[in-house]
Amino acid sequence: MSGMHTGKDEAPALIQVTCDGPVAIVTLNNPGRRNAMGRQMRQLLRDTMHRLMAGDPESRAIVLTGAGEHFCAGADISEMTKRTILQSREILAESCVVVRDMLAGPKPVVAAVEGVAFGAGLSLAVAADYVVAASNARFCAAFLRVGLIPDTGILWTLPKKIGMSRAREMLSLAAEIDGTKAGAISLANEVVEPGTTLAAAIEVARGLAEHPPLAIALLKAALTDGATTMDAALRTEIDYQPVLRQSRDHQAACRAFVDKSKPVFTGQ
Amino acid sequence: MSEQATGDATQIVQVHHEGAIAIVTLNYPERRNAFSLKMREKLYEHLYQLMHHEAGCRALVLTGAGNTFCAGGDISEMKPRKVLDYRERNQLPLEIFKLMVSGPKAIVAAVEGFAMGAGVSLAAACDMVVSSSEARYASAFVKVGLMPDTGLYWSLAQRVGGARARELMMTAREFNGVEALQIGFANQVVEPGQALAAALDIAGKYAALPAVATAHLKAALATGIHTLDEAIETEVNLQPILRRSREHQEAVSAFMEKRQPVFVAD
Lengths: 268, 266
Known about the structure:
The complex is a heterodimer.
Chain A: E1 2-5, E2 15-20, E3 23-28, H1 39-54, E4 61-66, H2 85-104, E5 109-113, E6 116-118, H3 120-127, E7 130-134, E8 138-140, H4 154-162, H5 164-173, E9 177-178, H6 179-184, E10 190-192, H7 197-209, H8 213-225, H9 230-245, H10 248-259
Parallel strand pairs in A: 3-4, 4-5, 5-7, 6-8, 7-10
Antiparallel strand pairs in A: 1-2, 2-3, 8-9
Helix pairs in contact in A: 1-2, 3-4, 4-5, 8-9
Chain B: E1 13-18, E2 21-26, H1 37-53, E3 59-64, H2 83-102, E4 106-111, E5 114-116, H3 118-124, E6 128-132, E7 136-138, H4 152-160, H5 162-171, E8 174-176, H6 177-182, E9 188-190, H7 195-207, H8 211-223, H9 228-243, H10 246-256
Parallel strand pairs in B: 2-3, 3-4, 4-6, 5-7, 6-9
Antiparallel strand pairs in B: 1-2, 7-8
Helix pairs in contact in B: 1-2, 3-4, 4-5, 8-9
């Protein structure tokens, strides 16, 4: 693994990026505070995710994880001082950019969740395409406990993932569930032994990285914005599929199927 | 239970208060609490009062008298009427539905026995459904030549997903409490006779959470989440206002001071 830091100065970067072949591993790195997201971490995560999605041809899949024993404890409550309404609006809009990139950006994102994923930490995990959870991981939409509505995109992402009934329960009751339960209600795609989520997530990401990049990119766009109604879903097929049929990757896949060989995808 | 009923036992909808929880009971046991016109009128009045005008009430439980929830529309009232008259009659159940789904307070269904037709609709409109394992559900509407109403057409798919909702509405088949949990219609299944106690337990948890945030969350879930952009817009619009609420400020102070918060809505 080759390390690459995005922070400045001597202080350890709040967001770290390492690479494992075609997989970029993004680590929330403030373990002393269970990786709670202050404004600085949010901005670094937003910039890092955007760069990996839009300007990093080396990586084809992204793993999001937390340093130490936890994924992310949510927003940094010590920073929840008396901001004005207009300042809060700016900050919220800022933190939603990363959600949009994770959901509709071109590369698959796999979350590796150990320990707590609370509040905005839960939102980040839910925004991933695939969630690997430790059996004893702790998920909680804690927002309501501090008098706030759930944010960072989770009003849309959680019902999409687990259905409105369970989402309403999780969001409105703000009760905690563990990794095993998360697997049972499809919040987590895979539940593994504590301490092994990162390895499992990298394996999933490597598999996703082998898919044709253009098809993955259009699929993510379609799932995020293209299927809000039945008519929109049908329209999206008609708009996207003919483009993909023209792609070199699709043609390479067809040839490889006939030749019984393994195709090499270039994203073109 | 400290009963402070707003009416006597002959009332077709009864309200009892237990601390911050209001227990709303459909009370027409001789017809399995059928959803008659009179019941609709009273249910709407009570729900409106509890949702909007009783600050002491912080969460609601909806249940039925005589060990059954609600058998659905009162078929004895289903006489030939003009289309325009029916349109008017169907309006009230929709107002009830909207109060339950997007009103400011959490509401928990405690279901024993039958929840048929509009009974299923009323349960589905609640934030959470606690079901007896032996409860019997059916979206029976098509069997009497009608399409699902009282919001079920929307709420059932929200609860159980599109494929299952299509199956249950089109076949009108019955399902019990155990299956209700398995398909996501119910949030919790309990032994027969225990639904009310379990629902009160959940309502107690709702009552302890900040009221202003709960109201905004229900409004957001009811309206603002068809697309990702709508969800983002909703949070950017609502969250900054909640950050200025007394409840949020109190929660932050309590967190920093490592004590339990005391919420006062504003």
